[in-house]
Structures are given as C-alpha cells and as structure tokens.
Design a protein that fits this description.
single chain, 65% helix, 0% strand
C-alpha cells in the first residue's frame, strides 16, 4: 500500500439476525425447519449407529433439506401457530 492512500471500508453488512427480523414469517419457517430436523435426527439415530462419518454427513444434509422443504410446504403447523400468536400482530 502506498503512503498517503486512504483505505476505504465498506459499511457493515446485514447479519443474519438483521435480515430475519424483517420477515417474521421467514423466521417462523426457519424455526420450524430446525425443530423438524432435530426430531428427524433423533428418529434416524438408531439407523446411523456404527456408520461412517461420510454417511452421517450425507444424512444430516438430507434431513436438513427435507425439513426445510417440509416447513416451507406448511410443516406441522408450528410456524403458523407462532405467526397467529404474535403479540404485535404484524406478519
């Protein structure tokens, strides 16, 4: 870097929480997807005992994508329940 040159820093970007605060529906769906994934991980645990790391990683990725699609398609109603019971009433 040459002397006398200014270093320009870009403004702070939005972090994950800032983005999610703007859309309550997206937050509720994300929460439901995480919860569904954790439930399915427990259901798959006996099947994955003794399997390789690669196999476990594959199933983790698989369950993450399935749970996200389930939540986006309506899930089991957790996101809807959360949105219906927000105190501020904004969705």
């Amino acid at each position: 870097m040459e002397l006398g040159k200014r270093v320009l820093f870009s403004p702070n970007g939005l972090n994950y929480l800032d983005v999610m605060k703007k859309d309550k529906k997206a937050v509720a769906i994300e929460f439901e997807a995480i919860l569904l994934k954790e439930i399915m991980k427990e259901a798959f645990r006996p099947m994955l005992e003794g399997k390789s790391f690669d196999t476990k990683l594959y199933y983790d990725t698989f369950l993450e994508n399935v749970s996200r699609k389930l939540a986006e398609a309506g899930g089991i109603g957790i996101a809807k329940f959360m949105l219906d019971n927000l105190r501020d009433g904004k969705t």
